[in-house]
From TrEMBL:
SUPFAM superfamilies: PFL-like glycyl radical enzymes. NCBIfam families: NrdJ_Z, PRK06556.1. Its EC number is 1.17.4.1. Residues 43-133 form the Ribonucleotide reductase class II vitamin B12-dependent N-terminal domain. Catalyzes the reduction of ribonucleotides to deoxyribonucleotides. May function to provide a pool of deoxyribonucleotide precursors for DNA repair during oxygen limitation and/or for immediate growth after restoration of oxygen. This is Vitamin B12-dependent ribonucleotide reductase. InterPro entries: RdRp_reductase_class-2, RNR_2_N, RNR_lg_C, RNR_NrdJ/NrdZ, TSCPD_dom. It catalyses: a 2'-deoxyribonucleoside 5'-diphosphate + [thioredoxin]-disulfide + H2O = a ribonucleoside 5'-diphosphate + [thioredoxin]-dithiol.
Length: 972
């Protein structure tokens, strides 16, 4: 009997034992919704450069203290239901209730609460915390929970692949469906035989790198097939694999190809039309190193590369030379990152089940193969009181509340594959973390790269994980430990003692971190004591995730463990305007440091003008470090980032999503040192990025790298063009007599006819659409549309391109059809192009788009041989709504705006702008904080352009996040 079944049995027997639910924020007898002021807003999403309206939903309801950006991102990304219909969510109340009530019901069903009163208190506390942006679940929860879609709650996945063709092809399939759902996955390819080994048939193996090509192409196809972001994936290879050097250099050599193609005039921007010809661009690569290799690097000795079948050494390399190649490749293109295998597995709570071999794409989730993790992050700034003290007691209570909810979610969650579902249900991995650390450190007068800053961060992280495992042991007493606990009990308890010992090593420097540390020490004492008695409900409790989109939902200034991006931010205002605003934490920090109001105003005015604090009037030089940022004139040193990661790593079950940024002038030797020190300091994983190391980063004006290269040559006097070759498509006309078929159809009661003509060699070349009872205007429009699509087909536009663009379009008539293969259609266009895909596209291509026949779906349900999606329409409802918002940036317009005084405006957060606000200035021609920083620095920021709305993104963990629409480059 599993632990979930045991919980149900206990509940049926009348067991009244439940987890402790404590009142934290709420008022008895008052619902959280009744304690805030609500206002109605119009959310209009526009293209930043053209002003074209892409998304519009009027009369949405949010609390008055939610910012414009937060309400816009939640409305466009998380509200479910077709826009313009009564089924569309239009209030934050509906969204929170959809999620929270699902959690509460599952908690009741699975025996978590001793009474209905406890369940109601749990509901109200969870609602209050979400309403007031105290924490947030990861995006899949907001997408899926409480909807007709599969209840997927996890954002992070780890897959497994063995040394067989069946396993490799299954890897492609499983990865594809995870990408289709908007999530990411990682895996280790080290079980696959190298290209230096023989097959059982006598031939030579292809090696893992060759199979990476197929997986990369698959990810690229899905990326362009209606996804809201690029496919996110991690590929890991052990350092002792015989193909390690080929793996290390794959992306660096492709970067050479990108440069050559760019210089030849091809568009090699990220998202450019020619970048698709380059391989390995859809994955992050990491080398898994062990202590043996790192010691060989230190000692300058040989290191053996081992066969996959029997572990014998079949080749040797100079360890230092290989390490230098890893660093050089990372210097050239930011890949590969590095993962420290022995450190990871030394902190592994389930070694009897299996080793940890890989991570999710952002490297924070590290656990068993075929497993998943759902995430939630606490907003640290919400626990900073008005008197600048940190409310550690409330922080611990909230962590216990949230970890309880996260564990409950596994009881009802759905998973993309059964092996992932089985492992997750048996080990119940969770990933509680936090956001806004950088803002908290600055507001409290701590430098990010300082002993005080690290002591505070370490104490907070220790308390977070201690509180999570304490609650995990308490839950185990009620509904039982995780199913895999018994066989791993000794190892799990050993890791808990390691966390406790690391907590004892923290050296606090002031009252704030001292108070937090005392609570953490008490929590770890209880963890060890309760765990010895009850076991633990969760194999893993905490990670530090990027918190990209949910960071905006919580109105955070900084993401995850990151420092502040810059001192001056781009901020959207009501009515569609924008402002350059000095971070609100800066005045608070200056006051904490003892400056008077007149001095604060002068310093803030200086920062607004210069973008940095160097030579700010009256600011002491010893206080400069408090205002150091990730980018800008006083950027934090690379080792400053590494030291902060090292301060928090011993208190995390998993790892940290973070990239260590280096200046363009950094050397290969400096990257070697970062990777070496990361190992010595006990990190689990590390990635680096050297500014301008990648060609495929668009400039802020969105121009192509080909144009940029041409401009550079022109500036250097290289203006001579010897030959210009222009490529034009050629129209392939249909013959006079061609095969065709006519299909009659009905969508939502509206009847029509589709005639499709083909080339003799079987390729679609034309289509004609006629609707029953159509007027002359509609008939003319449909004739014109049919001609346009037909000409496009004849000029070589692939049918899959039209299918990608026209499926999921939503408008009336919509609903049931008379076609057994397409039972539901969101519009006539949705039906027509699904039908064409079924008739004229191969199975593999349309399968990645989730388009299957009724026979294929039935076969999948009976045998599992075809991976047809369950509740296909529900899955695509999420994708369709997200794609609707492509090529846009948000502008929100509240209907009710409270006056901010004479000559001033106020946004939804109540921040005043105007003649008396020294920290704010009007901004023109800027769409994000990254572009604003460019204006201060005078150089282009090395960050990608958001594929959704066209604004420049900024770093968030080991990926990027868009301030305009909340999209991320691969992390949830």
């Amino acid at each position: 009997m599993t632990e979930t079944a045991g919980a149900r049995a206990a509940a049926r027997k009348g067991n009244k034992k439940g987890v402790k639910v404590e009142r934290i924020f709420t008022t008895p007898g008052v619902h959280p919704y009744d304690e805030v002021t609500w206002e109605h807003r119009d959310v209009v999403q526009q293209n930043w450069k053209t002003g074209e309206t892409i998304f519009e939903q009027r009369d949405v309801e949010f609390p008055d203290f939610w910012s414009v950006n937060a309400s816009t991102i939640v409305t466009t990304k998380y509200f479910r239901g077709a826009v313009g219909t009564d089924k569309r969510e239009k209030s934050l109340k509906q969204l929170i209730d959809r999620v929270v009530l699902t959690y509460v019901k599952a908690g009741k069903d699975h025996g978590y609460f001793s009474s209905d009163e406890d369940a109601e208190l749990f509901e109200h506390e969870l609602t209050w915390a979400l309403l007031h942006q105290v924490f947030s679940f990861n995006s899949p929860v907001w997408f899926n929970v409480g909807t007709s879609s599969p209840q997927q709650v996890s954002a992070c996945f780890i897959l497994a692949v063995d040394d067989s063709m069946e396993s490799i092809l299954n890897w492609y399939k499983e990865e594809g469906f995870i990408f289709k759902g908007g999530s990411g996955a990682g895996l280790n390819l080290s079980r696959i035989r190298s290209s230096k080994e023989l097959l059982s048939s006598g031939g030579t193996a292809s090696g893992p790198v060759s199979f990476m090509r197929g997986a990369d192409a698959s990810a690229g196809t899905i990326k362009s097939g209606g996804a809201t972001r690029r496919a996110a994936k991690m590929v890991v290879l052990d350092v002792d694999h015989p193909d390690i050097e080929e793996f290390v250099e794959t992306k660096a050599r492709e970067e050479d190809k990108i440069r050559a193609l760019r210089d030849a005039g091809f568009d090699m921007d990220l998202g450019g039309k020619d970048i698709v010809s380059v391989q390995y661009q859809n994955a992050n690569n990491s080398v898994r190193v062990n202590d043996e290799f790192m010691r060989a690097v230190e000692e300058g000795t040989e290191f053996g590369l081992r066969a996959r079948d029997d572990g014998r050494v079949i080749d040797t390399v100079d360890a230092r030379e290989l390490f230098a190649k890893i660093a050089k490749a990372a210097w050239e293109c930011a890949d590969p990152g590095i993962q420290y295998d022995d450190t990871i597995n030394d902190w592994h709570t389930n070694p009897e089940t299996g080793r940890i071999t890989a991570s999710n794409p952002c490297s924070e989730y590290m656990s068993l193969d075929n497993s998943s993790c759902n995430l939630a992050s606490l907003n640290l700034l919400k626990f900073l009181r008005e008197d600048d003290t940190f409310d550690a007691v409330t922080f611990q209570k909230v962590a216990e509340l949230v970890i309880t909810a996260m564990d409950i979610s596994i009881c009802f969650a759905d998973f993309p594959t059964e092996p992932i579902g089985e492992t997750t249900r048996n080990y119940r991995q969770l990933g509680i973390g936090y956001a806004n650390l950088g803002a908290l450190l600055m507001a409290t007068g701590h430098g990010y790269d300082s002993e005080g800053g690290r002591a505070l961060a370490a104490s907070i992280t220790s308390l977070l994980t201690g509180a999570a495992y304490k609650r995990s042991a308490e839950i185990a007493a009620v509904v039982g430990p995780y199913a895999g606990y018994a066989r791993n009990a000794d190892a799990h308890k050993r890791v808990m003692r390691k966390h406790q010992a690391a907590n004892d090593q923290i050296r606090t420097l002031d009252t704030m971190d001292g108070d937090i540390h005392r609570l953490a020490t008490k929590a770890w004492d209880e963890v060890v004591k309760l765990g010895e008695k009850n076991g633990y409900r969760n194999a893993q409790a905490s990670v530090l995730a990027p918190t990209g989109t949910i960071g905006f939902m919580m109105d955070c200034d900084t993401t995850g463990i990151e420092p502040d991006f810059s001192l001056v931010k781009f901020k959207k205002l009501v009515g569609g305007g924008s402002m350059q605003i000095v971070n609100l934490t800066i005045p608070r920090a200056l006051k904490k440091l003892g400056y008077q109001q007149e001095q604060i105003e002068a310093i803030v005015e200086y920062i607004a003008d210069k973008g940095h604090v160097i030579d700010a009037p009256g600011l002491k030089t010893e206080h400069y470090e408090v205002f150091d940022t990730a980018m800008g004139a006083r950027a934090i040193s690379p080792m400053g980032h590494v030291r902060m990661m090292a301060a928090t790593q011993p208190f995390l079950s998993g790892a940290i999503s973070k990239t260590v940024n280096l200046p363009e002038t950094a050397t290969v030797e400096e990257i070697e040192d970062v990777y070496l020190q990361g190992w010595k300091m006990g990190l689990k994983a590390l990635a680096v990025y050297r500014d301008n190391c990648k060609v495929g980063q668009p400039l802020s004006d969105g121009g192509s790298t080909a144009k940029a290269a041409a401009a550079d040559k022109a500036a250097a006097g290289e203006t001579k063009v010897e030959k210009v070759i222009e490529y034009r498509p050629v129209r392939k006309r249909l013959p006079k007599r061609r095969p065709s078929q006519t299909i009659s159809f009905s969508v939502g009661g509206a009847e029509g006819y589709l005639t499709a003509g083909s080339y003799p060699d079987d390729g679609l070349g034309e289509l004609f659409l006629k609707f029953g009872k159509q007027g002359s205007t509609l008939a003319g429009v449909m004739d014109a549309f049919s001609i346009a699509v037909s000409i496009g087909l004849q000029y070589g536009v692939p049918l899959e391109t039209f299918v990608e663009k026209f499926t999921n379009l939503r408008f009336e008539p919509a609903g049931l059809t008379d076609d057994p293969d397409v039972r539901m259609a969101q519009s006539i266009m949705d039906y027509v192009f699904r039908r064409l895909a079924l008739d004229y596209m191969d199975f593999e291509t349309r399968s990645f788009m989730g388009i299957h026949t009724a026979e294929e779906r039935a076969r999948q349900l009976e045998t599992g041989s075809y991976a047809a999606p369950v509740e296909e329409e529900s899955d695509e409802e999420v994708e369709g709504e997200l794609e609707t918002f492509a090529q846009s940036a948000p502008v929100a317009k509240p209907k009710a705006i409270e006056s901010a005084g004479s000559g001033a405006k106020a946004d939804a957060t109540g921040v005043k702008f105007g003649a008396g606000a020294a920290s704010a200035r009007e901004v023109k021609g800027v769409g994000s904080s990254a572009e604003l920083l460019e204006k201060f620095q005078g150089v282009a920021a090395d960050a990608p352009i958001c594929m959704t709305c066209g604004t420049k993104m900024r770093p968030a963990g080991s990926c990027y996040v868009c301030e305009g629409c909340g999209s991320t480059s691969g992390c949830s």
